[in-house]
Structure formats: C-alpha cells, structure tokens
Amino acid sequence: MSSQDIPEETLPSKQGDTREGAVTVKGDPFADPGLPPHEHRVQDIDERAAKRSERAVAFMFTLSMLATVGFIAAYLAIPIDKNIYVFPLGHISAMNFTLGLTLGVALFCIGAGAVHWARTLMSDEERIDERHPIEASPEVKAKVMADFAEGAKESAMGRRPLIRNTMFGALALMPLSALFLFGGLGPKPGTKLRKSKWAAGKLLVNQNTMQPLRPEDVQVGSLTFAMPQGMSEEDHDFQVQIAKAALMIVRLRPEDIKDKKELDWSVDGIVAFSKICTHVGCPISLYEQQTHHVLCPCHQSTFDLSDGGRVVFGPAGHALPQLRIKVNDKGYLEAMGDFAEPVGPAFWERG
Questions:
Q1: Which residues pair with 303 in a beta bridge?
Q2: Tens digits of residue pLDDT in 6-55
Q3: Residues 278 and 178 both lie in one domain
Q4: Largest CA distance in the chain
Q5: Domain carrying residue 323
Q6: pLDDT digits 0-9 by tens, 207-217
Q7: Residues 6+ apart with CB under 8 A from 128
Q8: Known Pfam families for this protein (predicted)?
Q9: Exposed, middle or buried, 116 (CB in 10 Å: 0-12/13-18/19+)?
Q10: Cα 59 from Cα 66, distance rounded (Å)
Q11: 173, CA 20 to 30 Å: which among 51, 163, 199, 305?
C-alpha cells in the first residue's frame, strides 16, 4: 500500500518540528528534518576560555616562527658532513635531520594553529542556503560579499590582534626556508666550468691503452679518445674531470684542413677537439671519415673537424673547443695549455 492510499489526516505531520531549516509539509513522512539546534562552545560563552584558546593559537604560531629560525640556524651552523646517531634510524646526517625536524615543526604549527583557531574561536553556526543557478544574480553576489564581510568579522581578526600578528609573522618567515634550500642546491661553480685538467706540458694519453700517444700512433682517418696525463679511473672525481677533459684525436691531411687556426694548432694534420657536445654535454663517438664530420648520438648535432669543429647540423649552439697540441722532445703529443673556451653546453656567464 502506498502513501497515496492512506487518508492524509492519518499521516504523521512535521508541523511540530522546531529544528532550523525544517521543511513542514503536511502529510509528507520524508520531509527534510533540517539542522539540530545549535550548541554553543565554551569559548562562545566564556571569554576566559576564548582567551586560553587565543593564547594556544598564538603559541603555535610563535613556535612555528622559532622553528623557522632554527631551520636557518641549522643550515648555516651544522657542517654538511656531520653525522649523529638517532634511534632507530642509526647514523644519519645531522643537517638533514635538523632541517627536516625544524621544517616539519614550522609547517605543522601553522596548520595546527589555524585548525585550532577555526574550531574554537571562529563562528561554527551552520546555515542553510537554497541552491541557486550557476550564474549568480546581483542579489546573490551582494549576499556573498555580505557573508564574506560577516565571516571576516566573526573570525575576530580585529579583536584578536595577538593571533593576527603571530600568524602573519609565521607566514612571513616560512618562505625563508625555501630561499635557503634553493641556495643549497649546489656550490657556485666559480671558474670550474671554464677549466679542465688540460695544461701546458700534459701528455695526451690513449684512454684505451693508458699509454702516451705519439704522432705515428694516429693514422689518417682514425678516431682516438684521449685524456690528460695523471688522471686515473680510480680518482674519486674522475667522472667529473673526464666530463670536461675528454678528447677526440683525428688525423687529417693538412690540405683538407680549412681553418687556419686549426691548422696552426695541429701537428702534421693531427687535430684534438673536445669530445663533449656543446648542446647538452653528451659524449661524441661517431666519426665519418670521408666528410670529417662527427655526430652526437643524443640529438644528432654534427660538427666538421676539418673546419674548426663548427656546427653543420643539429641543435648545438657553438663549435667544439680545440686543444692546441705539439710534439715534445721525446716524441710524444702534449698539450700547450687548456681549452681556449669552456667545454660543453653554454651557460649564463659564458662570454
């Protein structure tokens, strides 16, 4: 039997419902019950309790400020290589542990302070608004602005200057943590990008045989990879140094060399160029004997080793740096100095 079959006067009525927002419809057993009566918090009726909550929120914001200051102090004062024992983690970096702890406390206290403020001091009365079309009418817009103004008033920002000031202080100091973190992404390069392990008198060592090279070891059309004398794969910074010092050695016929400077810096057609592509720093390893071109396998930048290492194709921005070489008194190939320009991709400070 449906409700339509029951006389209307026998159905329960909602006329006696006093809850806020209750919809009273005679004969409807499923009417909207509305919201229960609002229960005031202790802070709403006791100003001393409200003051305690205010001090608690201010304490959390102040603690956030102190944690941010501690973060900066730890970053500046703790050596990067200092380790401490923390149970159950074991030995860990003192700086990383302190930075994580202070940053976590700073963020947590801002969030906890905001939540405690909202739960104890801001208005918690629930209100019912009828749904409205997506496009707001002028009346709705005016109501929104009025609600915003009332919300700002009920947040007690004006009447609670202690909370307001400490919150602004915590939010203002918090971004300083990011600034110090960005500064610690790595040491300033200084002149490291402009210098390599090559220097006057350094022998050219075959990277495969680890033996110094003589002119007769380099045949016309061959490609040989070399590194400076004194470097070893066992060196702790070998990968960093070889990334700048890796060398390509090619022997051309002197009459095939088009660039006069390249000819002057060569020995009987033996030319030495950086192996590092000037696009994004990939190692070059493909050589075309007939064209004297070398090809970067990463993005196909192509360089002409018979014409000063200039770019003939691809995204590379500038020519490969050439190393000036000579034959010493013992018949070995040696460098006459470092590369005349920085090796690898361009950077802001490059001239």
A1: 294, 311
A2: 444 444 444 445 555 555 556 666 676 777 787 888 988 899 999 999 99
A3: no
A4: 122
A5: 192-335
A6: 989 999 999 99
A7: 20, 21, 34, 35
A8: QcrA_N, Rieske
A9: middle
A10: 10
A11: 51
